[in-house]
Structures are given as C-alpha cells and as structure tokens.
Amino acid sequence: PEAVQGRSRRFNFSTDAGHRYERGVDPSRTVQVIERITQLIQEICGGQAGPIDDQTLKLPERKPVTLRVARTERVIGMPLTQAQCADALRRLGFSLEEGEGTITVTPPPHRFDLAIEEDLIEEVARLVGYQHLPTTPPLAPITARVRPEGQRSRFDVRHRLAALGYQETINFSFVEAEWERDVAGNADPVKLLNPIASQMSVMRSSLVGSLLQVLKFNLDRKAPRVRVFELGRVFLRDSSVATTDSTVKGVRQPMRVAGLAWGDAQAARWEGKPQRADFYDAKGDVEALLAPVLPTFERTEHPALHPGRAARVLIDGREIGVVGELHPRWRQQWDFAQAPVLFELDLDAVTARTVPVAQPVAKHQVVERDIALVVAESVAAGAVLDAARAAPTQGLLRDAVLFDIYRPQPGAASTGGLAEGEKSLAVRLSFQSDASSLTDEQVDVAVQAVLAQAAAAVGARLRA
C-alpha cells in the first residue's frame, strides 16, 4: 500500500486497481480467491477447471508491533492487566509474544491498519468494551489571561472602524505580481511554488491592492458609496528572520490594518449634497482610530498614492503607516470615476495605547490669542503647530489650532506684506492656568515664547 498511496491524487488519475491496492491486498489469500472465482464461473457458465500451480517465492513480512501495558492504561484511562490485553488480542486471532509489561504482536496479512502501538491500544479498548471506560471528566484548569491596560484588542480596532462607517472585508493573501510591482513598489515579492491561479502567484506585502479590488468589485455593481477596511497579514522579505513555530526563515509577517473610502464622506441627507471623501476625511479617521494617541503627519511619496496628497503617519517620531489619495495613474488604470482615499497602518502600533490619567477640571477660564505667522511655502502647517506646542510657556499653552491659510493671488497689486514664495498661517492659541486666572502680562509672555520658538524652528515671523 505504501507504494500506491497518494499516487492517484498526485497524478490526478484514479483507477479501480489504485483504489483497492492503496488500501492493501492480502497476498496469502491469492489461491483462495482464485478458487472462489473459479467456483462461481463453473456454477454460472459451466466448464471444467484445471489445476492451480502456486509458486510462492517470497511473501511480504509484517513488522511486529509492541504494546506496552502501562501506556495502554494511560491512553485508555483505566487500569488494565497484561492478561486482559493479551486475551483481547488473542480473541482477534493474533499471534503474540509476551514480555515483562509488553506484548509483541505480528499483525496478520489482511490487517494493514495495524502499524503502530496506538492501533493495538484501539483494538484492546474496543474488545474490553467502551461501556467499561470510566466517565471521569478531564481536569483542564483555566487561567484567565488579562490584557495589559496599555494594549487594546483587535476586536476593539474592528469595532472602532465599524463605528466610523467602515465595513470589514477578508481577502486572499495571494495577489497578482503586477499589484506588488505597481501599488506596493515591491520588485521581489514572496512567490508561491504552487499558485492556485496565475493571478494569485505572489504573497502580498500591502493590503492596498486587496482593497482596490474590493472597490472595483462593488463599483461594477453600482455601489454609490464604499467604505471598507481589512485586518490582515502581509509578507516581507527579511533575512534576519529565523524559522520558528510561527515564522518562516527570511519572511517577516506583520499584521496591518488598512481602510479605503470612496464616494460621499457622509451618507446622503436631506439638508444638502454631501462632500466627496478626500484626504482630510481619511486623515481624520486615522486620528480617531489612534485616539487618544496624537499622531503627526509628514508629506511623503508612495507608489500607490498621489504625489502631493500623501502623508506618512508618525507616533513619537516612528513611522507606522501612510494615508493619502490614490495615484491618478492607478485611478485611470482601474477606471475609477473619482480617486479613493486610503490608509495603511501597522496593527501593533494601533493596538498600543496610553493608560489614561485622571486630570482635574480647570476652574479658570481659557484665554485665546490669534496670531498670523509668515513662513515659506515649503513649511508644513504641522511643523508650525509642533513648534508652538514645544514653546516654553510653563504649561500655560493648552492648544494650538490652525484656522486659516492666506496666499496672495499671482499678479495682485497687494500681497499683504508677503514676499514671493511665502504664505500666512493663522493660528489660535489657547492659554489656561490651573492655579489662577491669567493676566495680560502672563499671556503676552507666553505668546512671545511661542513666536520665538516658531522663529527658531521654522523661520516664522509675525505678520505685520
């Protein structure tokens, strides 16, 4: 049977002989079978049978199997003697030899299912009687695993995204090689030795391609609005990874979460036509997903995203993902009426969270000051806000919010005091003290500290 088993499935060629021989055929009963066939032929068709010439040169020998009585007791779960085990095996017609605590059985030629010790234990249990086995319930102590406060579950991530209006999708980890080259910028993906289809020949290194395929599927069926996400594993080449119980040598397999929004930012409502989902909608969803952690965003380039509408997401200076609008090239290739917005984040960074600390409610009112800062066109607004928050205000500055951007029109007579290549950022500063109400002098000192920090960090000046 060992020479035949699995060959039919391997070559996808099934025959009656293969079906029978892979289950084993008793070579010692060949003459008996021929005699029976001959008898049936004579009874049905008549005729005269000739003699049989049986030349037995060599029959396959069955390997002896040893049964340990002590192990039989442990597996079955009840006390047994060697005499009980031997009696059960003799009732099956087995030839056996007894030793000290062991019974060696030579299986008969027709019992191909007896190959290891557990097969004999099964026969002993069957003949002793299943009704005699004790019904003692298993002892399985349960130890509660308490999740650390600084970590949230994947279910919580799914629940948060569902609350933001996204629907979860589950996709294959096998994708087209063109996706990896175009959308992920991966020229050397992990290839499959036996792909189930030509368009599923490599392992994905990004979830973006899978979400674009989901979007295409839904748009082909006239979906007016699509918001989907996926939690899945990606596969990246990494020579530092060794083979373990959960890893494969040379392949890193991190978990990621990605989302895609297409169509209206909000469902249609009676008061007016909603706006299309854009970069800032996806950015807001990322901030809501990571809350209460405050991420920062820096302009970046990504093979799948628009060159001027893409940003990398950072937490404490460490990049955890990207967010942006689909590149116009891929929008045209996939035939999308409008560009979807996407984000992709490392799941470990998303599940990590800070433990909240109770803070007393301030009893004194907030003082707000609006300032207009002139910076170079290349300076990001986020850099200005980071500089303001880093100013030495002795804890008085509670928030800094951008509420307006001014750029002079080309060729305009008045430029508002701005030189060519400059822009004006209007920032609202909020000051508050837990000890007492702030005076104008205290606020003025804090504002000057913010201006000095902004000037040193990004070269900003106060607009005249």
From TrEMBL:
Keyword Hydrolase: no
This protein's UniProt keywords: Aminoacyl-tRNA synthetase, ATP-binding, Cytoplasm, Ligase, Magnesium, Metal-binding, Nucleotide-binding, Protein biosynthesis, RNA-binding, tRNA-binding
Subcellular location: Cytoplasm
GO BP annotations, alphabetical order: phenylalanyl-tRNA aminoacylation
Signal peptide start-end: none
Cofactor: Mg(2+)
Domain FDX-ACB: start-end pairs: 362-463
Chemical reaction(s) catalysed: tRNA(Phe) + L-phenylalanine + ATP = L-phenylalanyl-tRNA(Phe) + AMP + diphosphate + H(+)
InterPro entries for the chain: aa-tRNA-synth_II/BPL/LPL, B3/B4_tRNA-bd, DNA-bd_dom_put_sf, Fdx_antiC-bd, Fdx_antiC-bd_sf, Phe-tRNA-ligase_IIc_bsu, Phe-tRNA_synthase-like_B3/B4, PheRS_beta_core
Residue ranges of every copy of the B5 domain listed in the record: 60-135
A Pfam family reported for this protein in Swiss-Prot or TrEMBL: tRNA_synthFbeta
EC number: 6.1.1.20
GO molecular function: ATP binding; magnesium ion binding; phenylalanine-tRNA ligase activity; tRNA binding
GO cellular component: phenylalanine-tRNA ligase complex
Subunit annotation: Tetramer of two alpha and two beta subunits.
Family: Belongs to the phenylalanyl-tRNA synthetase beta subunit family. Type 1 subfamily.
Record-given protein name: Phenylalanine--tRNA ligase beta subunit
Organism for this UniProt entry: Variovorax paradoxus
